[in-house]
Amino acid sequence: MFSIFRHQALGVERRKDAVAEKVQEARDKKVVYKKKKMQIEELLTEREVLLRTMNLLPKNVEQLEQKIESFGVEPITVPSALPSSHAKIALPETTDVEELRSIVTDLVQDLDQRRDTVTELKKRRSDLQEVFNGEEETFDSKKAEYESRRAHLNEEFEELKPLIQSLEERQEEAEKTIPQVEEQINEAEKQLSAFNSAASNPDEDLKVQLEEEQAIAESLLQNNGSQITDYE
């Protein structure tokens, strides 16, 4: 009787151990499933981030190309492999480890390809940024040179401004004097014409001059004679 009870007790213990082992296996599988699920969720999240990054990179590259083209530089053209849109991937519903492993492998390969594309785009963006920085530096240098020359010209203009003003005043005064000078020239021309006319009849002029000198001499004689009479 005791041996039967003992045998039953051993059977119960074995069943309890078997159940405990099954429970532990289930727990282990659940832990593995949770870990795999977390890994998949992390991969999917990373994929979403990468896809959003890839959607933003072409816009940034396009903006850089426009800025570079505005400086007259031909941007480098690289064929883009990015999709214009992407569909959201739902979380897998399967609990099979092998199937989950296959899904994870596919996702990893896809992410590797996406990373390569992103790396290429980042390199392209870096090259464009370098070109843009060089053009911007050249533009800033030319702008600074232009501003310096402009300031120098303004200084020279300010220095020449009094001289220009003086020349303008002298020009205005000269314009006012021109009529007077022309009048004087006309008068001189008239006098010259009269002198030329007188020079054409020298005998007549000499006769007139002699008569004038004779009249002056007679007048002097009369004056001297009257003075002598007074003295007497």
Helicity range? over 70%
- Quickly give the structural class: mainly alpha
Identify low-pLDDT runs. Answer: 78-90, 224-232
Q: What is the percentage of strand-forming residues?
A: under 5%
Count of DSSP strands: 0
Q: Write down the domain tally.
A: 1
Q: Characterize the largest beta sheet: strand count, sense, and whether it forms a barrel.
A: none
Mean pLDDT: 71
Please provide the ordered H/E string of secondary-structure elements.
HHH
What does this 3D model show about the protein?
By secondary structure, the chain is mainly α. The protein has one domain. The chain is built from 3 helices and no strands. Mean pLDDT is 71; it is low at 78-90 and 224-232.
Can you give keywords for this protein?
single chain, 232 residues, mainly alpha, 3 helices, 0% strand
Topology (SSEs and partners):
Blueprint: H1 2-70, H2 97-199, H3 202-231
Helix pairs in contact: 1-2
GO biological process, one term: cilium assembly
Coiled coil: 23-53, 164-198
InterPro entries: IFT81 (IPR029600)
